[in-house]
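At this stage, I put together one protein's amino acid sequence and its backbone structure tokens, which the following lines show:
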Amino acid sequence: MKTFVVGDIHGRNAQLQRLIELIPRDESVDTLVFLGDLIDRGADAPGCVDYVMKLQRENPERVLCLRGNHEQMLLDFIEGSANLWITPVTGGERTFEQYAGEALRIEKEQDLDDARRTIENSVPSEHLDFFHQLPFFHEDDYAIYVHAGLDRTKHPKDTAPQSLLWMRDMEFYKNYRGKPCIFGHTPTPLLPLRGRVGRHGIYISHSAIGIDTGYNLQSPLSCLSLPDFSLYQTFSDGHEETHHITAFIPDTLKAMQKKANLADKSPTAIH
């Protein structure tokens, strides 16, 4: 029984589908967790949402998706509580165009209201319902899964959603030693150098494990399986990579590996 965790997707539907085909998932016993940020920046955000919803609909007990800050920004924009989603840095304008079939143009105050109505009417109701029901964290025997990170002194159930969606805390990245926490949100090239594993590697420092391996033409979309710590990646040019990570694994997961006799079984290892 394994858990497969997928990092931030950001509209890369083709890479996502190839990644799900790549991972050796037994749908009857293995769990598939998406860390959120299905939308924005990439070429097919609606397709990503459709695909993840389909996977969840077909296997609701074994497939789940967390809420990312990009899903939250879209909901906030539609509800009128914040306009951050339409600023250029978020990539929300690409998602707007994909759903609405027209470019986003904001030149005056009225344009904001018009854009808000347009996107609310363009996103399928089932997509909006899906975004609204997304949980902020998940936990199983292996780890805690959140979009952005943890308040080091609190369980996520006692942490404000704003922190779980947006947190960027260097102390957490470097020194968190609780139950292993798998997170996305901050691309691993922006995390402390000491914890990065390999050229396109994930980030591991004590019990903090980051798997958002970036968004550009060279960045892989990454999936980590637990407790074996195999890493599966697909790239925009079509190639795929699989690695078995043997270094920096949290002690709790090492104990699970030993119990399951999983350690060091893959021929391709990242030390």
Notes: Residues 45-58 form the longest helix (14 residues).
